[in-house]
Each structure stands twice: as structure tokens, then as C-alpha cells.
Design goal:
Layout lengths: L6 E7 L2 E9 L23 E3 L4 E3 L7 E5 L2 E4 L2 H7 L6 E9 L8 E9 L4 H14 L1 E9 L2 E10 L2 E7 L21 H13 L13 H14 L18 H8 L38 E3 L17
Parallel strand pairs: 1-7, 6-12
Antiparallel strand pairs: 1-2, 2-8, 3-4, 5-6, 7-9, 8-11, 9-10, 10-11
Helix pairs in contact: 3-5
Length: about 300
């Protein structure tokens, strides 16, 4: 079945404009559940509750607020948001072309296929082929929902795909993650690790080999429940043990230690957290009404400039 486009846009750089259509690259198939009332089996509904007034609040009685301090809010109106939104353009502005190998995959977010719109096939193919020949990908901005979205255009199997990207200040540094200090390994340990990697290596990634085994088990369990059958629990996994990394590598490779091998000191341990005493729960504090700064003025909404006819 042919894919349906989710949106229209145009790739723009210099004096060139290429109309394109956007298509999703994935189709989620996760199993979802509903919350039911145990007493009667009816699906329950969520309500908004005010903890101060102890009453149910309708959507029409709510307002948007930004917390700038502990339980201190300022009201943000639709007019305030409209004042900072960009004019909707549906245009993908290419800012620069960069070598593909210089882009860290850590910055990539969601992905869309880009296909040519009517009459744009030639220009679309010309751009995709030029990027492929030169080993370049395009960095650009896409005005979506009044916001600037950083995007990456990449040639893919004769066409183009668009990656939405995170900004640099949104991506954490690995330096923030605790790392082991300087570790020295013996030549035998390094050789065993290399052998293990080599043993599990293949020529290329084949995604069709992998499937969601949890979802398959869950689907089978649901079908059994619907049919009135019992679901048996799987056997428990053995508890983690303190192991020697050198011996674990040998076992992974199927190699048995020889009598001449001397026992090495443990280089890696799987530690199990021991129980700790529960901290004394703090005394409940008296709930007070949060402070909210109401909007005292209306931001003048700027009308978008009318486009001049060609």
C-alpha cells in the first residue's frame, strides 16, 4: 500500500525551491492498555483535581502557567505565545552542506522521508545525487508550528530523508557521566576480548533478524487470557554472582581453563546493593495556595505580512 504524506514543505537554498512531501519512517505497533474499575470492569476517566480547593476542575477553568519559583507561577496566554511564534512557512532552509562523517549521531532525533511533490522530481533528484557524489549532507532549519527546528537532510537510496535534531545545549556531555579511571589490561585479556568481538562479528547489520520478543510473548499471553487459559510465569533468572572477567571471557568463547593457567585477581565484579535503612518520612506540610501572577496586559498580536503577488 502506498504511503500517505503527513505534510508538505519546500527545500530552499539560494534561488532554488523544491516542493516536497513528508512521510513517516516508522509505524509503531506497541500494545496499549486501558485503566478499568476493578469493581465493575468499566473504563475509568481521568479528572483534574485542585489540591487546594479540593474540587474537580474543568478544562475551561484552567490557564497556562510557567513556574519561575517554588510554587510561584506567571500566566502565559495564547496572545503571549503568538507574539513569539514565527510566521508559518513550511520551508526547509538549507544553511550549509557538511561532510557526513562530521555529524555525531547523538544529535539525531525523529526521521521523515522526503519525496518530490508534483513537478519537482527532476530538481529533487538533482539535489540528492549531488549530495551523494560529494559525500555531503545539509544542515537546515524547518519552521514547524511556529518554531525553528534544526534538521539534517541526507541522501538515502536515491532519495532524501530529513532528521530532526537536538540543539547543542540540549545534548548532555559524556563527561557528566561517571567513568572508570585508568585501567590496565594484560595482553591475554585484550586478546580474549578481541576474539569474542571477532566471534560475534558479521559483515553488516541486518535489522530483519531482530523482532520484539516481549511483544510476541505479551500477545500470546493476551490471547490465552481471552481464551480463558492460565498464564504460566517464566522461570526466574539466577542471581548475579561475583565473577572474574578473564574467566567470563573464556567461558563466552567456549574455552576451558588449562591447569597451567594461574587464577587472576577479579577485574570486574557484579555488585548487589544491600538493603539500607528507610529514611524517616518528613512530616506532611500544610498545603498553601500557590502564588500566580495574572497577565496584566494583552500583548498586541502582530498580523502576518501579506505575501506580495508575483
Amino acid at each position: 500500500m502506498a504511503a500517505r504524506s503527513t505534510a508538505s514543505a519546500s527545500i530552499s537554498f539560494g534561488l532554488v525551491s523544491i516542493p516536497v512531501k513528508m512521510y513517516t519512517t516508522v509505524s509503531s505497533h506497541h500494545i496499549g492498555f486501558h485503566m478499568l474499575h476493578k469493581k465493575c470492569g468499566t473504563r475509568v476517566k481521568q479528572q483534574l483535581i485542585c489540591p487546594y480547593d479540593k474540587e474537580v476542575v474543568e478544562r475551561s477553568q484552567t490557564m497556562r502557567g510557567y513556574e519561575y519559583g517554588k510554587e510561584r507561577y506567571v500566566e502565559i496566554t495564547d496572545e503571549d505565545l503568538d507574539a513569539v511564534r514565527l510566521e508559518r512557512t513550511d520551508r526547509i532552509d538549507i544553511l550549509e552542506f557538511v561532510p557526513e562523517e562530521t555529524v555525531d549521531l547523538l544529535y539525531l532525533d525523529r526521521t521523515h522521508f522526503l519525496g518530490p511533490d508534483k513537478g519537482a522530481g527532476r530538481a529533487y533528484k538533482l539535489l540528492a545525487d549531488a549530495m551523494e557524489r560529494n559525500g555531503r549532507i545539509a544542515v537546515g532549519r524547518f519552521g514547524v508550528r511556529g518554531q525553528d527546528q534544526l534538521v539534517l537532510l541526507r541522501p538515502y537510496k536515491g532519495g532524501l530523508i530529513m532528521h530532526q535534531m537536538h540543539y547543542a545545549d540540549e545534548v548532555r556531555s559524556i563527561d557528566d557521566i561517571p567513568q572508570p579511571g585508568k585501567v590496565e589490561f594484560k595482553k591475554a585479556e585484550q586478546d580474549l576480548a578481541d576474539q569474542l568481538v571477532d566471534q560475534l562479528s558479521t559483515d553488516a547489520f541486518q535489522p530483519e533478524k531482530y523482532h520484539d520478543e516481549y511483544e510476541e510473548r505479551l500477545t500470546a499471553a493476551i490471547e490465552k487470557k481471552v481464551a480463558g487459559e492460565e498464564i504460566t510465569a517464566p522461570p526466574e533468572r539466577p542471581e548475579a554472582q561475583v565473577i572474574d572477567l578473564f574467566e567470563a571471557l573464556k567461558r563466552s568463547l567456549g574455552a576451558k581453563p588449562t591447569p597451567g593457567d594461574q587464577e587472576e585477581p577479579p577485574t570486574q565484579q557484579i555488585l548487589q546493593a544491600e538493603g539500607t535503612e528507610e529514611e524517616e518520612a518528613p512530616a506532611p506540610s500544610t498545603k498553601r495556595r500557590p502564588a500566580v501572577k495574572k497577565a496584566t496586559h494583552r500583548t498586541t498580536h502582530r498580523k502576518p505580512r501579506e505575501k506580495k503577488s508575483a
